[in-house]
Every structure is written in structure tokens, then in C-alpha cells.
Amino acid sequence: MSRPSRHPVLAGVLGLALAAALAVLAFNADNLPIIGGGTTYTADFTEAAGLRTGNEVRVAGVKVGTVTRVALHGGVVRVGFRVKDTWVGDTSTVAIRIKTLLGDKVLALDPLGGASQNPRTTIPVSRTTSPFDVTEAFGQLSDTVSQIDTDALARSFDTMAQTFRNTPDSVKGALRGLSDLSRTISSRDTQLAQLLTATKQITGRLADDNAQFQALLADGNLLLAEVQRRRDAIGALLTGTQQLAVQISGLVADNTATLGPTLAALDRVTDVLQRNQDNLTRALALAGPYYRMVGNAIGNGRWFDAYLCGLVPDSYLPAGTAPSSGCVPPRTGSTR
């Protein structure tokens, strides 16, 4: 049985169409109703202030969406942004704020109003705010100063001074000051250019390290959170200790009637022992030799070693064995 023939051209066309469809879905995943979601709004600003596509949209410091479009629309800048699971009122305000010291921006949304904002209605300029970008201002200043012909400026001030040489002294003094200012700027042109170039390099370097600064700030937030958790744990420990002290105080108060007589009797026992301390010390001192002698008496077997003195007169004893005084057992090798 022969297999049905395949059409490689048709299979290739279908494969390319499927790959293109998948690519389109991948690029527009955020717009899909299930895996994407969110609502898109637009707002007009007087200037973009460095806001770019992909910047965060935050409500009370919490990220709720991203900026999807920044484009010029007539005499204003129209910004499109998408938010998810966030209510936007019909009097909400939107502001472009500085996220970091390096000039990164964030779109801050303040949801206000009694009704929901219509996504098809653009938020007007009266409800938006743009910040002053210091980094961009420095960059523009550097570009502007670099384009100034300081020599021509100095010559123009000199020409003006010569033209107004017959004017009153106040006018000549002002023009002379402008001429001196132009000469000073001209003499410092190289230093100013180097300074502004270095400033631009520093801002660029800081912008390149923006991710590291963000990671540092994130680590600082983690550290503060850990300190907060430790503080809560210590607070719980102190609270538990206080509760334990209260319970112990209650236990002591409940058992005072029982513990009082016991402690009083124990006090009397310690008084008796204190008064008889000398007798007990002497008894313990005598008990040692006594028990040692008892041990010596019964330590040789199942009998008692004993010594009887005085039964036999001293005259019957061998010479040198009788004690000189008293009844003392003889010692081996003794001279007495």
C-alpha cells in the first residue's frame, strides 16, 4: 500500500505562517486577554522629562503597570500606560517623577474621583505634572556652551564698547564689565569645556551603574526588613518574659500560705544546725579514726582483733615488752 504523497511547499508555507503567528503572539503577549490583561490609559504632558517606554507605573509606591508609549501629539506629549488590577478614577492625577538619583523616571498615578476613568478619554494636561530633569539640563548646558564661539563673543563685546565710548560713564562701565566678562569666559573656555565634559561623563557613568545602585537599594530594603523581623521577635520575647513574670508572681502569691510555714521550719532547722556546727565538726573528726580502727579490727577476717591489757603482771612479761605507762598496745620495733 503506497503512502499519500506530501507537498513540501505547502508544509513549508504552513510552518512559516505558524511561526509568524507565534511571533506576533509573543510580541503582543501583554495585550492578550488571559496571560496579558490590564487596561490602557493615555495622558498628556507638557514635556516627556526623560520618560521612556517600559518605565514603571506606581500607585503609592507599588508597581501596577508599565508605560507602553511616549509620542508627540500636537503641542503635548501623549503617554500611554497599562495598569492591571488597579482602579483609576475620573479625577486621577498622573505625574512623572524621578525614581533614582541617576535620572531614571517612573509614572506616579494617584487614583481619585467618584467614577472610573474612561480608557478612551485622555487625561488632560491640567491633571498631569512633569518634573525638572537636572541631568538633562546639565547635558543641554554642556552642548550649548560647546557651541558658543567665545572669541567672536569677545570681539562683539569689544565692538560694542568702542561704539559706546562716548556714552555716559554708567553705560561705558556696564559695557566695560561685559567686555571683561567675555574675556574671562574666553580665557576659561578650555577649563569650562573640560568641566562640562567631565560632568557629562560622570552622569553617563552613574547611568551605566543604575542597575547596581538599584540592587544596592534593594539589598538595603532586605536588610531593613530583616531588622524589622528581628525587632518583632525581640518584642515578642520581652512580652513573653513579662507574662512569665506575672504567672510566677501569681504562683508565689497562691502558694504563700503553704510555702511560709515550710520556709519557717527550714529556717529553724538551719538555726539548730548552726548552733551545733562545732559538735558536728568534732563528731566528724572523731568518726574518721574510729571507723579506721573498726576497719583495722575486722579487716583481717571474720573475727575481731583485740588487745587486753592488765590481765598479766608486768613481771611475767618479757623484758622490754611492758608499756612504761598506761595500757598501750605494744609496737613492733618500739624502744619502750
Explain the overall architecture:
Residues 119-296 form the Mammalian cell entry C-terminal domain. This is ABC transporter substrate-binding protein. It comes from Actinoplanes auranticolor. The protein is α/β, with parallel strands linked by helices. 51% of the residues lie in helices and 13% in strands. The termini are far apart. It is elongated. The chain contains eight helices and seven strands, in the order αβββββββααααααα. A seven-stranded mixed beta sheet has the order 1-4-3-2-6-5-7, with no helix packed on it. Among the domains are: 39-131, no CATH class; 138-199; 209-255. Helix 2 (134-146) runs antiparallel to helix 5 and helix 3 runs antiparallel to helix 4 (169-187). A hairpin with a 2-residue loop joins strand 2 (56-59) and strand 3. The model has no long low-confidence stretch (mean pLDDT 76).
List the helices and strands and how they pair.
Blueprint (H helix, E strand, L loop, with lengths): L7 H20 L11 E7 L10 E4 L2 E12 L2 E8 L9 E6 L6 E6 L17 E2 L4 H13 L3 H14 L5 H19 L1 H20 L1 H45 L1 H20 L1 H22 L38
Parallel strand pairs: 2-6, 5-7
Antiparallel strand pairs: 1-4, 2-3, 3-4, 5-6
Helix pairs in contact: 2-5, 3-4
